[in-house]
Amino acid sequence: MRLCRFDDNRLGVVDEDKVMDVTEVLHGLPPPGLADPFFAALGTLRPRIEALARDAAPLPLSAVRLGSPVLRPGKIVAAPVNYLAHLEEATRSAEIHHGVLINEIRRAGVFLKAPSSLIGPCDAVRQRFLDRRTDHEVELAVVIGRTARSLSPGEALSHVAGYCIGLDITLRGPEERSFRKSIDTYTVLGPWLVTADEFGAPTDVGLKLDVGGEPRQSANTRDLILSVADLIAFASSFYTLHPGDVILTGTPEGVGPIRPGDVMNASIERIGAMSVRVEAA
User: Fold this and answer.
1) In terms of Cα–Cα distance, which of 236, 263, 221, 257 is closest to 84?
2) Mean pLDDT, 10 residues at a time, over the chain (281 residues)?
3) CB 249 within 8 A of CB 141
4) Among candidates 248, 203, 207, 245, which has minimal Cα distance to 227?
5) Does residue 74 sit in helix, strand or coil?
6) Exposed, middle or buried: residue 271 (CB in 10 Å: 0-12, 13-18, 19+)?
7) How far apart are CA 251 and CA 55, in angstroms?
8) The pTM of the whole model exceeds 0.85
9) How far apart are CA 61 and CA 80, in angstroms?
């Protein structure tokens, strides 16, 4: 199943080029706390979602405005250097490392991004600090569906609600990662969430990004240093993961600068594609 948020915070099921409005299923859910009540209840709500989708009048996908499929994650957990080739390019390039020691993920650990940085694919990345380099980073994003703490890798994937495309926009500089990456609009999720059962194993999934048609990044999740399951387990050994939390699994090599006027085209197998504009703040 493919679930999207669209227009004025409506919930939809995506079927090829159509959207079925199933917002009614959200009625009566408690307000969000540490956990997103929709993702916490997704397994229970699914039969009702499927029934509403069957009866809904389809809307053209091209006629709706897609938002982030996750509205208010309690936390966004990000993996800093989780592809070996990206670790090598970051170590080589002073424009990326700025004199700061770059460690691979087992030493660097994960970091948190501010939930206030989150937007959807129809919003624009509003670039600040135009005198400094700002880079695109395409990543497979994981959305947690069950409360998780101290998981083993073998348990991890059963706690996933689904997957979407993530863009981790990065201001280069010497400051801490979470500071430079938490600027408003610097986390993009979309175009929808593919539920874990439909997506399947996240171990051999291609991802790509181009800017205005110029290829920049192309890789496969089989090249991750920590697999998706290992990364979830690693994060859960430090943080309790709640339904609706997002994990960005790391970006591959090929990161590069963006400027106002650019359009980033990102795609991930089994999810789809999205185009995101860059504007000046």
Assistant:
1) 221
2) 97 98 96 93 98 98 98 96 81 72 83 98 98 98 98 98 98 96 98 98 98 97 97 98 98 97 98 98 96
3) yes
4) 203
5) coil
6) buried
7) 40
8) yes
9) 33
